[in-house]
Amino acid sequence: MVRAAVLACALLLAAPAAASAEWQITPMIGVTFAGKTTITDPDQGTSNRHPALAGSVALLSGGVLGVEGVVSLTPRFFENRDMRTLLTPSGQSPIVDSSYAFAMMGNVVVAAPQKWTEYFLRPFVSGGFGLLRVSKVEGADLLSTNLNLFAYNVGGGAVGFLTRHTGVRFDVRYYSTVTGTYHGPIALGDGDVHVRYMTASLGVVIRPGRPR
């Protein structure tokens, strides 16, 4: 499943470019929020806001369609800074040593036509499937978790260019595992593992080789 997700991203980005198509490379920073999971969460950290790093490599046509590969990393996804301060003076959680959520997706993009928006914000929506990896290391090592899960994402935003080669991107995105991907004792309730969260990101768009 993991190999298939990686291959899907690679195939999307390897698609041949049309004459009017352009590449957009966008490193982003943002915040993860509104997280929910059935995985045991002793710190009650998934629902908190967490700083996140993200990135996109997109191939967009001059029309409405394009493809992109999206990655997102949220360190300390299962950790609660308020609870750490409350439980220990040092702010170190007595339960969760480290954790993160990492998503890698291949998306289809639908954007406003370029000729309408060249000197304004170009709105877009995108969505697709891929890998969502969650990791949680606990001090007792009894309920530590390392899972690769099949997931999807859907989101949107806008891109605006300040110069011929650089611009900004605003992005809001929802990530969620596909129901029934994994079933095991680490999950509460019915035993199915569910992970879902939102991200809001801002990035600098690099448009290499923009034709004149």
Provide the descriptors you would attach to this structure in a database record.
about 210 residues; elongated; mainly beta; eight-stranded antiparallel barrel; single chain
Q: How would you portray this structure in words?
A:
The protein is mainly beta. Helices cover 11% and strands 53% of the residues. Strands 1-2-3-4-5-6-7-8 form an 8-stranded antiparallel barrel. Strand 5 and strand 6 form a beta hairpin. The longest helix has 12 residues. The N and C termini lie far apart (42 Å).
What order do the helices and strands come in, and which of them pair?
Layout: H1 2-13, E1 22-37, E2 50-60, E3 65-75, H2 81-87, E4 96-111, H3 114-117, E5 122-138, E6 145-161, E7 166-177, E8 195-206
Antiparallel strand pairs: 1-2, 1-8, 2-3, 3-4, 4-5, 5-6, 6-7, 7-8
Per DSSP E runs of 2 or more residues, the count of β-strands stands at 8
Averaged pLDDT: 83
Question: What's the SSE pattern?
Answer: HEEEHEHEEEE
Low-confidence stretches: 15-19
Query: Which percent range fits the helix content?
Result: 10-25%
Q: List the total number of helices.
A: 3
Helix-and-strand structural type: mainly beta
Envelope shape: elongated
CA-based gyration radius: 19 Å
Query: Main β-sheet: number of strands, strand sense, barrel status?
Result: 8 strands, antiparallel, barrel
Provide the spatial order of strands within the biggest beta sheet: 1-2-3-4-5-6-7-8
Strand content: over 45%
Distance between the termini: 42 Å
